[in-house]
Amino acid sequence: MREINLNGIGMTSQRTRDRLIQRLVDEGVSNQQVLDVLSQTPRHIFLDEALAHRAYEDTALPIGHGQTLSQPYIVARMTEVLLGAGGKLSRVLEIGTGSGYQTAILAQLVEQVWSVERIKPLQDKARERLRLLGLRNVNLRLADGGFGWPEDEKFDGIMTTAAPREVPESLLKQLAPDGVLVIPVGTDTQHLTMVVRLGDTDEFKTQRLEAVKFVPLLSGVVR
């Protein structure tokens, strides 16, 4: 991995990051914990060197293998929805590690993160970036994300960073009582959706939040 300046310079400096945070505030992001973590996390290290100067634009950027680094607004929005929907988030499952950026944000806000990625070269890079940041509360697995975590685990929160046609039943089954799922759903038209399990029942409350655009949730593992 190339030598990396975590603090950044020029277009990756703290001043540039602060301008992005102000833009997120202007767009309606209000959770101060989320804003603080985004401000402190060097997004430029999650991109190839040629794109690092664009890291603090509020836009999605390519990371290879047909995948993208999500727009900062979407990262902030999904994270604050997850944090604000329920109680204490001890265990969070992320479907789609990708570059590891959303994983890093979550790891600084919850106790433990389990993250599933289907593309091994992306997972390898993400693992190195998380190590570089000293984030040791993340469990990574190479697997088909549509099935969640293969064991019969239960999670207080689940976040999906790719869009299925409909909410996977396998993910609903892995929600702990009062657990929350934040997921983009749809094909040509997608909506960010929040699903909350009602106590220890098999009933769920679903709320459509806003229009979004994500890569599709695909099956299979790429090594």
Termini Cα gap:
19 Å
- Bulk shape: globular
Unreliable residue runs: none
Radius of gyration: 16 Å
Classify the helix fraction into a percent range.
25-40%
CATH architecture: 3-Layer(aba) Sandwich
Write the H/E string, N to C. Answer: HHEEHEHEHEEHEEE
The CATH topology annotation reads as Rossmann fold
Describe the structure.
This protein has a single domain, classed as 3-Layer(aba) Sandwich (Rossmann fold), CATH 3.40.50.150. It has 223 residues and is of the alpha/beta class. The mean pLDDT is 92. Helix 6 (169-173) links the parallel strand 6 (155-160) and strand 7. 27% of the residues lie in helices and 26% in strands.
List the keywords:
223 residues; alpha/beta; Rossmann fold; 7-stranded mixed beta sheet; two-stranded antiparallel sheet; 9 strands; 26% strand
What is the topology?
Layout: H1 14-26, H2 32-40, E1 61-64, E2 67-69, H3 72-85, E3 91-95, H4 101-107, E4 112-117, H5 120-132, E5 138-142, E6 155-160, H6 169-173, E7 175-186, E8 190-197, E9 204-212
Parallel strand pairs: 3-4, 3-6, 4-5, 6-7
Antiparallel strand pairs: 1-2, 7-8, 8-9
Concise summary:
With 223 residues, the protein is of the alpha/beta class.
